[in-house]
Amino acid sequence: MMNSEYLAVFLDESQEHLQAVNDHLLKLEKQPEDESIVGEIFRSAHTLKGMSATMGYEDLAHLTHNMENVLDLIRNKKKQATTEIIDIMFQSVDSLENMVNDIASGGDGKLDVTSLVAELEAIEKGSSQAVKEAAATTEQVDLLEVYDEYERTVLEESLEQGYSVYQIKVELDEKAMLKAARVFMVFDVLNQLGDVIKSSPATELLEEEQFERDFIVTVVSKDSGEVIKNKILKISEISDVVVQSMTSFVHTTQAEDQTLQPVQEKPSETKQEPEKGKDAQKAPENNKTIRVNIDRLDILMNLFEELVIDRGRLEQISGELVNAELTETVERMTRTTGNLQEIILTMRMVPVETVFNRFPRMIRNLSKDLGKQVHLEIVGAETELDRTIIDEIGDPLVHLLRNSIDHGIETPEARMAVGKPAQGTVLLKAYHSGNHVFIEIKDDGAGISRDKVLNKALKNQLITEEDARSLTDSQVFGLLFEPGFSTAEQITDISGRGVGLDVVRNTFESLGGVVTVHSELHKGSTFLIQLPLTLSIIDVMLVETGGEKYAIPLTSIVETAIVNKVDLFSAHGQKVIDFRGKVVPLVFMRDVFNTPVADLDEDFYSLVIIQKGEQIAGLVVDSLIGQHDIVLKSLGNYLTNVFAISGATILGDGEVALIVDPNALIK
Amino acid sequence: MSVEIVEEQMKVIIFQMHTEEYAIKVSEIQSIERMQSFTRIPGTAPFIKGVMNLRGVITPIIDLRQKLGLEEKEADETTRILITSNEELILGLIVDGANDVMDIPVEKIEPTPEVVGGVEAHYLDGVVKLGSRLFSLVNLEKVMQD
Hints:
By secondary structure, chain A is α+β, with helices and mostly antiparallel strands.
């Protein structure tokens, strides 16, 4: 496709605008009278239309065009934003999303939109005539532009030097598809004839096609108005040009002895010029952020990882050489790289909002489908997480939310019967704590029945009768995440298809996260997800066992300890210790990893107490080396499914150490 | 648009294992490294020797002798690691010594006899006889696959 280099931008922006339309439609449903919301939706739809037309996606453009018409009616108070209209709008947005996704995955973005278009047109009909008239009157633009002092000075000096100043209103053809391109051509022509001093809307908006059909430019030129008009009219898809010669400017100030701005020849340069005008107050805000391709951030991260590895090497060398100056320099470098690390990591942080913002819409549809009344409350949407984690958590969260509504929240009747408000509440909350981000999904629904879970687990032979009696509540609820478990008595297409919470748990665990459930019968359930802030640089405890070094992620470590051999007990052939009043099973790393060096005969064991959810175990190692920041690296595609190893890292001495996956060591 | 182009010559790296000489296309080899220390990976097949740090990249190393069904040999001065990589993975192959780059005429490649010096024919693409020397062409794709 010829526009392939713009495709990424197109997709990015389309998704943003679709999201904006979604959000605002939801708001509009609650406040149908609010014109500013309609305006927002209109703007997004309009931009979408322009972009998709430029890119040649006609179905997209066609549908957005019709949406725009209906929105225009609402905006001009010719129509009420009724639920029916909003429903059709939502359906249209769905279709648009499908098309954009299709384009993203390499498709041509074609979709049969005729029925939706017909529905939109049906709404539009009847009042459309009136609208056109109304639109025509609103489009009567006052040709008198407002200039700021700087612009006035330039214009007046131009007049003094024998130039003419024109205000030109250019109207594009109704069917003009490539509006930005036409604008560019107009500017090109104008820049050949003279200088563009100002345009309204501002050039950046024109480039983004954020205008209806016409725009006004102020030009200084030595040519006559007639020449300019004819030249512009030669550009195709221009329907009308009005040129007005100007001789005075509102509230003239004393012209100072200044030379005229040098003639700018490149259109791109002149284009920046008008920004100084009307949008001056808007511009600084725009300059505060830039869009950076995520790939670049990944490269930066990779380079930084190399640096962290070299830092480790330097630390080791300086430790060996014991040179005060070297040590000092290395320490300073460690501090600087520490700061650098923080900055790079923050740069990769994205607010969870990007995931959360699609949920209100989903909940709306879902509760309608299920005949339930659900209010979704989102707290902490600004909480930030690493981009790589953000990309992964969407689907599992959707699953948990669906679960809450399908199995948690009761029907309005059932709720009234037990004295709860008819509308159920689902709280989606994100917050930081230490090195983790927590995401909580809490509903005030029926809660989980311990007995039901136990019965199901017994039936599926996940546990024995014996277990059933001794399990704690949280252990019982943990069974929900076992493969093949589903408590729904009826299978709906929303959840309860057997593929379920185990997949959710696996996804979170693969991200280094932990999921836990708390529930109180008749009061509701809470799913708590703990996620690491970032994936690639982690804190580990380095240990040595059988002559080999291993790294254990600090997130799974409860504490370390040294125990005397005589304190070991044997239960069912399993070595255990009594640790802080708890019986802790021991896992010998030498045995698990079959290390080559023979057993050391010592009186004491070094223990690393690890935990997975509620369960803990003691990992027996030869010695504890210490805590380190390491760069997590994958073992690559050749070595897949290595038991209890989640990756590798390069140590300060250049050697590779394997990273232990403690989750695999606790049964 | 793909037209079958018959290459006249094929550039290969010649390396030794046991008493035989083998060849791998130069284009498939990223670099040749001296033997260096690596980290054992517990619970993997015996021919997987471990992973090493190749300029910041964690690179799995396999013993090509063992992989092809030859007996093991202690590493010595001439032992080399051939690094091969494609889009999906990177892999290091331990061989006895890599000493030559040659052009071999493509039409001289003959089908592999059932067993060449005890090596499973499965991993070979064919044999080439040049003068008094016989080279077995290693099929890297198959080696990397299983």
